[in-house]
Every structure is written in structure tokens, then in C-alpha cells.
Amino acid sequence: ETTLQSFLPSVMASFLPDLAGALQAFPLPQFFGLGLTGVEVSRVGQYYSIFANLESACTSGATCLSDVCLDGMCQPPSCTDGVKNGGETAVDCGGGGCPGCATGQGCFLTSDCLTGGCSGGICQTPCSSGATCPSGVCMGGFCRVPNCADTVKNGAETGIDCGGGACLRCDTGGGCNGPSDCQSGVCTGNVCQAPSCSDGVKNAVETDVDCGGGTCPTCGLGKVCTLNADCSSTTCHNAHCTCGDRLFTFSVSSNNGGVFDSAEWPGGTASQAASAGCDVTINRPSSNIDLACTLASPFSVQSWHGYSNCFGAGGEDNDGCQADSCPPAGVPSCCSGRPSCSAALNGSGSARYFVQCLE
Fold first, then answer.
1. Cα separation, 129 vs 137, whole angstroms
2. CA distance 230 to 237
3. pTM of the predicted protein model
4. 159 to 169, 184, 235: CA distances (angstroms)
């Protein structure tokens, strides 16, 4: 046993270099995306331990967290590798672990900058007044980037802290280059204009262009609304002005009949409108009042606008006509129960024609 213990170290010493070489040539680390950078062998009593140093293998910096690949191995970030990595705020500078960054380079804190300070994520130059700064703003000893609350017209602003796309739109009287710079959406002569009911723009409290909202004229059919009062039709349905449902009543009277001349309906047409664009037209009979619906045409709906449908309603014969003084009381129709010869020849008749129109 004593001889064996003295013999083994010399055997292992000659064997270990070959073992290390075999480990380095073994492809398993590469299979897992790793590279073998070294082998360490240690002995504790009669036991030997072999430690392999494995690092991430790479073919380019794109595969490394540090973006640095050297000799097939990913390298840790450093302040001299020419790459912005680790905690750096710009290439090889800032972040606390590297030297401060020059003016114009990226930063997160003022301590990231070699001189001046950090504003808008960029190292700015030192200053004593806004006159030396591109933004016109010097604060804390270094220039600041433009912002929408520095009370200076700078950057892309068209007015002080307004307009230009990055800030809120400008109030009336503010500077502008176009409608999008103004709250009113109206820019004239590079000055934002106050909203009006004739500027061709939906602004202020208007519900649609130049109408509604209580301060401008009411809106026509199809325009956007929030209340019935916004609409000329006094009907706001599903946020748009509509005609709504409407019942029209047409009162029609005949002329006076004589001994040899029967009373006659006036003929032609009659129209009524609930509001602009919401109207209906009917045909009136032109024959003797006792011939309507028998030997002559009855009352009928000719046309309508702003509604989905209009139709005559009422009357016992479903002709849409209800008697007023003709026919006699108790017979509410224009198409039956015609008046007697004395009424037809020596009197006159009248009737009411009801037309129901639907939205």
C-alpha cells in the first residue's frame, strides 16, 4: 500500500496533462454555447478534483451581453472596449464606473458628465445665463434642454410653452404656424384666433362644425349632437340630429256646392314641415266630395324628406282621413258615408287627413 501511494502521484502527474487536453478538445461545452478557458486540478489526500473554467462562447458581439466578443469568448464590459455596455450612459463613459462623459454625450445623472450637467439625457455645457444656452434657459450652472414649462419660447414651440406638436396647443393670441398649433384650430397671420360660429372648424363647445352647444345656431340633419336643443329638428338620437317620429294633420275643405254644382275637394298638393329637411307632401282629391275613393282618387301621401316612411292613418276605411264636418258626425271617413245631396249640392265639406312619419 505504501509503495502504491508513492507510485500513484507520479502516474497521475503524467496522466493529467493528457486529461486536460482531452477536456479542452471535448465538444460538450460548445454544444451548450460555452468555451473552455482553462483546467485546474487539485488534490486532497488521495482524491483528485478537476475544475473546468467555462465562459460563453461567441462568434460576434451580438451574441454577448457586453456586445464584445474576443477570441471566441464573450468579454466582460470595460471602460475601454469601445462599446456602450454595463452601466455606461455613453460609449466607455458615465454610469459611475467609468470617466465622465463629454458635452453632447448621453447621461442619466449630472455625475455622469465631465463638465456642466445632465438635461434631457444629454450632457450640457456649463453656463452663467440663458443667453449662452441654445434653449435660452440656464439653471443650476448648466444649460437645459427646451421643455413645455420653462416660460421661454424655444425648441419647436410656436408660442411660449405651446404649439409645435410637442406642447399643448396655444390659446387665442398665441403664435402658430398652422391650425394644429391652436386650441381653436384656426391660425391666421401666425396668430391663433378665437373660436367663432363661422370659422369652418368644430371648436369651443360646438357639437359639430359651427353649430350646436348652445352658443351657435342649431345643427341640421345628420350633424353630431348631445342634446335635443343642439338640433334644428329638436331631436337628437344616437348622437346625431334626426327628424324623429312626427304626426302631421292636414285640414282640407271643399268649396261650396250649388243647385247644379256639387261641392268639390280642392285638388293639388299640400305640404307641411316639422323643421328644415323634415317634411311631407300629400295629394288632395279634386273631385266631388261624394266621389272621392269611389269614382275618384282619395287623399294620399305623395312624398317625404328626412323620414324612413310616411303613411296616412285613421279613418274607418283605413284611408287616413277623419271626418270633420263631412261626412256627418259619427261616420269618421272620407271614403264612405258621403253627405246627403243637400250637403253636396248646397253646402260644403271638410276633413282632416293624418299622416304618420317615422324616423
1. 7
2. 11
3. 0.61
4. 9, 14, 42
- Find residue 271's DSSP bridge partners: 281
Cell 493528457 belongs to residue: 18
Strand blocks (E) in the chain: 34-44, 47-56, 69-70, 73-74, 117-119, 122-124, 138-139, 142-143, 187-188, 191-192, 236-237, 240-241, 246-253, 269-275, 278-283, 300-305, 309-313, 321-323, 350-358
Residue whose cell numbers read 279634386: 286
Max CA-CA distance within the chain?
A: 161
Instruction: Tell me the pLDDT tens digit for each residue of 83-115.
Output: 999 999 999 999 999 999 999 999 999 999 999
How do residues 327-358 score in pLDDT, each as one tens digit? 544 444 565 544 444 445 556 667 788 999 99
Q: Residue 78 is which amino acid?
A: S
343 alpha-carbon distance from chain centroid: 69
* CA atoms of 113 and 123, how far apart (whole Å): 6
Residue 93 in contact with residue 79, Cβ under 8 Å?
yes
DSSP assignment string, 269-286: EEEEEEETTEEEEEE---
